[in-house]
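User: Round two. Same drill as before: sequence, then structure, for each protein.

Assistant: Same drill it is. First protein:
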Amino acid sequence: MRLSEFWDRMNRQFGETYAASVAKDYVIAELGGRTIEQALADGESAKRVWEAVCATFDVPPHLH
């Protein structure tokens, strides 16, 4: 998954403003207690981060 696709899915799930807030502020256990921004900055793949988002939030199946 490309990073642009990841952000497109985040924006569709949360809306642009809230997606940025979730990425910056929400600590996800499946990402080792990191935020989305931290995990991506550490080199975690966008696909892996998106899978963690799907597991943590109620993401509709059509966005998986």
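Second protein:
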Amino acid sequence: MKKFEEKTLKSETIFEGKIVKLQVDDVRLPNGKTSKRELIKHPGAVAIIPITKDNKIIFVEQYRKPLEKSIIEIPAGKLEPGEDPERTAIRELEEETGYTTSKLTKVASFYTSPGFADELMHIYITSDLEKLEQPPAQDEDEFVELIELSLDEAKRFVEAERIHDAKTNFAVLYLETQELL
């Protein structure tokens, strides 16, 4: 057994939906005792930092039901089964913004909430945007509004908590530290 490994003794699926699966595992802890773990299984997701020719970042504003409010985020979406993250990034960029790109650069991947979920988020950046003449339709239950902000404006939105999610905060910090804008 690895130093901190928890051995699964039993696993029970409680719920399986369109996006997540909730399971409860009985585990043996490194000290020999047992405990329960509530886990969310997620297919993974991507997010894109789209930069316009005039050095603005394209964000989307959308209502987030778990928060009961709208927030401003970089475009993002979940991976479909077997879909390459880069392909997902382009699909989500097109659906949410009406832009496409032929050049994506991977910035990072990270687990969003490893204490209870296995969602792996892949972040890409592009400054090679092309407006689509016929953008694909958004998901029927998705309502977004595009917002273009300079890096300084985005930082002010972070301070005001209008940008208030981890992936978008990461994107703003990344742009600031890389001095790309």
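The chain has three helices and twelve strands.

User: Perfect.
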